[in-house]
Amino acid sequence: MWSDPEPPAQLAMTEFYAEHVHSHIHANPHQTLQKYRRRICSELAKFDISIEQLRDKTILDIGSGWQAIVFQELGCRQVYHLDINAKHVDFLNRYIAENGIKNIISEQADISSSLGSAHHIDLAFVAGVYHHLADREGFLSKLLPNMAANSDILFRVYRAGTWSRWLVAMLRTASIGRLTPEQLLSAYRLLHPYALDNQFVGDLIDDLLTPQWLAFRPQQFIADAERLQLKWQCSAAAFDFDFSDQDENFRVKWHIDDPIAINPSNRLIATGQALTENALPTPEIAELAGKLTKLLASLSHYPKRDAATVLVALYFLVRKHSGVDAYRGQIADAAPNPKLADWRIAQLDASLTYFRDWLKQ
Ligand SMILES: C[S@@+](CC[C@H](N)C(=O)[O-])C[C@H]1O[C@@H](n2cnc3c(N)ncnc32)[C@H](O)[C@@H]1O
């Protein structure tokens, strides 16, 4: 049996995204901007928010800064951008200066304790962020009083009970605090030496190593809205577990009539409680989950190189990769797999048997 000398230091959220994730998925700025233009239009359309409605509005964006650029392009009156990561803020401030933009303010802040100068917000675009916050009550207690009357918060959140989120929650038990981005990248290059899929690589490192990762259920956001006496809108399909082709994210909109009437401080919110249910299996796959747990626990007895290779190989079942698509059980442009959930479960089971026997030798 093997023991590695030092476990890797825990990665810090202040550096994680710019250094290890966005450097891959935002490698081509032109493609990135196009992706964010498409994404924002499609997210707004899901709630029937028209571009015209946003023209005289104040927007809050949190993240890499590309969303702020798109909201500004769409003609919003004022855009506030926040991120915990200085590089994202520096990038956006350079972009603002180079393009003579006057109505974006970008500031470094941990949104759980400060919203910088953002206030009187008409639309808070909280996409891909809430599930990475350790202190969600802190964030809401800053956000809600800074919303304008008749405003909206649009959340896009990881959905518990979907295939990719369930499997990632499990795989993280063997990656967090053990492996580094470099070890995952080396394993990826060994398994897939032909071409680099930047999106896949960025998602792989994000999913397996982001310091804070949670998955929620739509009911929790609805319960919170009702506790806070806010109107809500959510068209996510109702299910607890569905391992077929369900979207791994869901969207909810909260509407704030009057921010002064809300008091978030003295209520226990459902999305604020620390969640440990992320990786709970359905009864039907309890045996498979047990087998996976056992294999993942055993990885700590092997060299990091072997652990990373097994994890990356299993991650090919988490999402699609250009050309090879184990995630959907098909190659390139083959017809959709008609029994996707069954295929995924069988494929994972076969992979676990294979790796268990391989490691034992
Ligand atoms: C998955 S990324 C993407 C967010 C957004 N969808 C985008 O593409 O710009 C999550 C972002 O949230 C930021 N973040 C995480 N925790 C934060 C916190 N407590 N305060 C401010 N920003 C935070 C990270 O630095 C990262 O840029």
UniProtKB/TrEMBL annotation:
Extract the Pfam families matched here.
Answer: Methyltransf_11
Do you know which CDD domains this protein is assigned to? Answer: AdoMet_MTases
Q: Could you tell me which species this protein originates from?
A: Methylomonas rosea
Q: Which GO terms describe its molecular function?
A: methyltransferase activity
Report if keyword Methyltransferase is assigned: yes
Which parts of the sequence belong to the Methyltransferase type domain?
A: 60-142
Q: Which residues cross the membrane?
A: none
Q: Which UniProt keywords apply?
A: Methyltransferase, Transferase
**Top-level taxon of the source organism:** Bacteria
Stated name of the protein: Class I SAM-dependent methyltransferase
One record GO biological process = methylation
